[in-house]
Design a protein that fits this description.
TIM Barrel, alpha/beta, single chain, globular
Length: 325
């Protein structure tokens, strides 16, 4: 086991908290957040000391119909600027670009003309070569970059090693360990983190972690990976995100001892805006159907469908998942 970095009372300056509420949370309501919600969340994150705020996806308008989604599926420059102006704050702006689902050669301005600071490239392990092409393009435009390798729990040790060795040779700034299916336990998370940390040793690259809460372990896994040296930590308000959701940002800020983080403005935002989303029928968070897909290391799509159908036959649902293993 590698050494843990710091202790429960220490402050690490390399830690960056990245709010994914609009992007992962947007998967729960089709990215249809009100301008007031987005503006208030932006101001809240600035006051709370959050390091990065992800505004959504930069999705292809050739692949996705603009009329069928809220604006944060596409993150047009003018839409972000309408909220942040020139973003004259310490907080940086991020967007996500999915391999195969964005027009990266045409839809991104040079960084000098954009209010966006970081582009997060999301891919599956077999898409690493395509992800690298995108990373180098965004780097040439002047952006900070990450590579978020999804569904890592489905990849072999050899595949992961090969992917990491390829990425280390690129211009990428942060390589993300992503628990897409919420199937990892702290022990697995520690093992993966040490593997990632070892590969980037001696480079200037950092490791990030993105958790899902299928087994109620998103926060536990986040602080476990942090304890072994991960620097970038994804979280969202009340864990809002696809299916079982993500690590709750309020738990994470409560845990981090750095005085630059301030929980109070986040609590004010939560009490004013989050109940309204729930009241309007937006659903996310841990439930037993998500536990099943986490246990079985499966994509949550079946559990999401179960939830949307308002089914209550949990035993039959679990049986059907086992039958389809």
């Amino acid at each position: 086991m590698g050494a843990r970095k710091g202790n429960l009372l220490s402050v690490r300056d390399d830690i960056k908290v990245l709010d994914v509420t609009l992007r992962d949370g947007g998967l729960c309501n089709n990215f249809e957040f009100s301008d007031e919600f987005v503006s208030r969340l932006y101001k809240t994150n600035v006051r709370a000391g959050i390091d990065y705020m992800e505004f959504g996806y930069k999705a292809s308008k050739k692949v996705f119909n603009e009329n069928e989604y809220g604006k944060w599926k596409f993150c047009n420059e003018e839409d972000i600027r309408a909220i942040v102006g020139t973003n004259n704050t310490d907080m940086k702006i991020a967007v996500m670009a999915d391999v195969g689902r964005c027009d990266f050669k045409t839809d991104f301005l040079p960084k000098s003309e954009s209010v966006i600071d970081m582009v997060r490239v999301a891919c599956y392990i077999h898409q690493i070569p395509a992800a690298i092409e995108m990373i180098e393009h965004f780097h040439s435009l002047g952006y900070e970059t990450t590579c978020n390798i999804m569904a890592i729990s489905k990849s072999s040790s050899d595949q992961i090693e090969q992917a990491l060795e390829m990425l280390v040779k690129t211009s990428v700034d942060v390589i993300y360990l992503v628990d897409s299916y919420g199937s990892l336990y702290p022990e697995n998370t520690a093992d993966y983190t040490q593997k990632y940390m070892k590969i980037v040793e001696g480079t200037n690259k950092l490791i990030g972690f993105h958790a899902h809460n299928n087994q109620n372990l998103a926060f536990a896994n986040t602080i476990e990976t942090l304890s072994y040296g991960t620097s970038f930590l994804d979280a969202s308000v009340q864990g809002m995100g696809r299916g079982a959701g993500n690590c709750q940002i309020e738990l994470l800020l409560g845990f981090l001892k750095n005085p630059k983080y301030n929980l109070y403005p986040l609590l004010q935002f939560m009490e004013k805006y989050m109940p309204e989303l729930r009241k309007n029928g937006v659903v996310w968070g841990y439930d037993i159907q998500y536990m099943f897909t986490g246990l079985l290391n499966r994509h949550p799509r079946e559990a999401i469908a179960y939830t949307e159908q308002k089914r209550t036959d949990v035993a039959e649902f679990y049986h059907s998942l086992l039958e389809n293993e």
